[in-house]
Structures are given as C-alpha cells and as structure tokens.
C-alpha cells in the first residue's frame, strides 16, 4: 500500500494506463490511509467511500474494454468543500451552509470527471475560505501531518493535509490570498495558483470577485502541470475566464533552466524572516544556480503599495458577498471571521475604487521593477517557521492577530497582481516542519513557472519526503 500511495499523480495515471496497477487498488489504498490518518488529521468533511469504489471499478472496466482513457484516468482525488457537485452538500466549511445542496456542478469538477479522476469526497477548509491558518470552528481544525499541533496553512487546509499524508494524489484548493500556496508550504507539497482567470470559477463559492483562483495541490510540479492542462481554459459559464489557449504544460518540463534569469526582490518578502527560512531559501537558489539559472537581487518598491491595496480589495469584496448573511445570521460566523467582514463595511467606497484603479499601474510597475530582463521572481512562501494552531488562534486570543496575518504576508501580493505562482518544498526546520519556495512569473506564464519548479524538484528531493 505504501509504495502505491507514494506514487505521484502522473506516475499513478501511467501505471493504471499500462495495467501495472488498478484504480480500485489505488482507491482502496487511499481509503486505508484515510482510515488510519483522518481521526488525527481531520482532513475530510465527507468521505464518499461506496461511490468512489464503484467509480474505480468502472474505471478499471473501461480500461479493460480498450476504451480511450483520459489523462487522469482512475486517479483518486478529493477536493476542498466549496466546489459544487449537483445534488451534494457543499458546506464551505461553515455553519451557514452546513446543509446547502449544490444546484449545479463546478466546471472544474466536470473537467476532472471527463479526464477520468475518481472523487473520494470533500475536504476540510477554513470557514468560507477566509483564514490563512486552517482553523475551523464548525468542523474542527485540520492538523499538520508532520506534527499535529502545528498549522496546516489555509484556507485549503484539508487539501494540503490529504495530499501530504498520501490520502489522495491531488486536490483542488482555492487561492485568494495564498490559500493554495500556504497549505502547500506548511504541509510540504506543491501548490499552483494560475494567472487570474486562468481556470473557471463557475460553481465555486466565491470569496473575492477579483482575486479568487482555482488550482491544485499535488505531489510534484509535473502533477500540477497535468492538472492545470486538464482544468484551465475558457468557460462560457464563467464570463471572467480567460480566452488564452492552454498550452502543453508538461512539454515545458525539460529540467533545463540554463540561461533563465531569476529575480529576488529585497523589499517586503524578507521583513522579519526567520534565519532558518532564509537559509533554506538561499540553498534553494543554489540548487537552481547548479542547474544553470542566474540569480539577481533587486529593488521592487511597488510592493508596499500592493500590500495596502490587496487588503482593501479582499476586505470589501468579501464583505459584499456576505452582506445578506451578516444581516440575518451574523451569530453563525466564527468571531474572527465576522470581525474581518465588519472591517470591510468600514472601508469607504473611494478606497476600494482607488485600490482597483491602481491594480493595472502597479502590475506594470512591478513587472518593470522585477521582471524586465527576468523570467521568474523567487521568494520564501512563508517568512517564518510553521506556527502552532494555538499561536494563531485569534478566537481564543485576539492578541494572536499579528502572527495570524503574518502567515500570508508573502503570498497576498501575487493575488492582487494576478500573477501565476507556485510553492514547492525547499527544506525543513529543526522541528521537521516544511519550508516553501515561491516562484512567480508573468501573466499566463504558468509553463515557465512550472518549468523552474520541476527543474528544482529534479535537483532536490524535498518533495519526496513523507510525513510519519
């Protein structure tokens, strides 16, 4: 079982296609991992055991018949509980939607179904996707598979845990301020946020109209490339989805980054950074240099303005989405969440419009500062070591607010700028907790971002480590 569940998503898909294993065997192995680990880690909100076993058996019968197989045929997955599947409950990690039955299926789930993936159920998450740590009052906190008292990162907490703990081979998260990349970093897996609008958001509970992103948490950059190729693209049901053609992301994963130029902004990303994080980041840069990339440290003063604007946009848009429930059911929100939403109502409309108006100019300025003559921007995903759940519990102690917000300091700017960004494991601290490397590129340059992430994973073995 261990050898099978330790395969990457693409390795398993290939093994199933070649007849070296079966979808049913992989699904049963995942269910065994879930049975063993979920009582401690609390990754799942709902487990659809019987349906998954039936779907896996059907997938094996399809392969045996000689039918054409999709690129994810027979691969077990599970997804953050905010992706709607028609007729199924989608809680969004909340009391308010504990019994909400989805009226339609999210486009991204339809695409995964068409590619042959097996859906095992829904995963834990921060309430309404609105915190960076993974705390959840209604369904209980998810726990870090490397050390359970520590944070998983959020809001896609269950997704990070399930992939890291080998309960599933891949999982959908969502990313509005870092909610894919943070669980990837804190749980030691790969997490990709594409360019804003790269993947359809139809059938997904929103948090922020202009900063929400759909994307995967996986074992490897190659897994993320295949997942993105399946899910990206124009969707008539989401008028904001991009019209750009979807390239063959896996074709870019040559391992060759000779001549690629990597920029390291000196502002913002290293403020108050822990020494062990900086040391792991520098070692990661050395690994990329060993592959032939060049590293340049530079100044990007636009980041301070970006940080201010992202807070305004996310607060106001979140408050707007929750306005009716806040009037009618405010007591059903966790204290820290209602406090954040109320803060959005206090911001003047002029601040919000100004923050939106600055978005294009600040993107151009940042690209001029950090990407003119460069291919990739590299930073630590998290400035500090992984905090504990207790240290970031702001419902228990509001004094923890600073540590709570610091978790997402390095990820939020790329949501406002809309740039494709990935987090990959690049080391561990003295407590055996993961450290993440964050790589960002120009708009719609997911292929280049994944190329560098994959080259790093060919040079290092951090992504192959397994909790336990």
Automatic annotation (TrEMBL):
Under Enzyme Commission nomenclature, its number is 6.3.5.7
Q: Which Pfam families match?
A: Amidase
Key words, A-Z: Ligase
SUPFAM superfamilies, alphabetically? Amidase signature (AS) enzymes
InterPro entries in the record, alphabetically? Amidase, Amidase_CS, Amidase_dom, AS_sf
A GO molecular function assigned to this protein is:
glutaminyl-tRNA synthase (glutamine-hydrolyzing) activity
Q: Which PROSITE patterns match?
A: AMIDASES
Give residue ranges for domain Amidase: 26-450
**Name of the protein this chain belongs to:** Asp-tRNA(Asn)/Glu-tRNA(Gln) amidotransferase subunit GatA
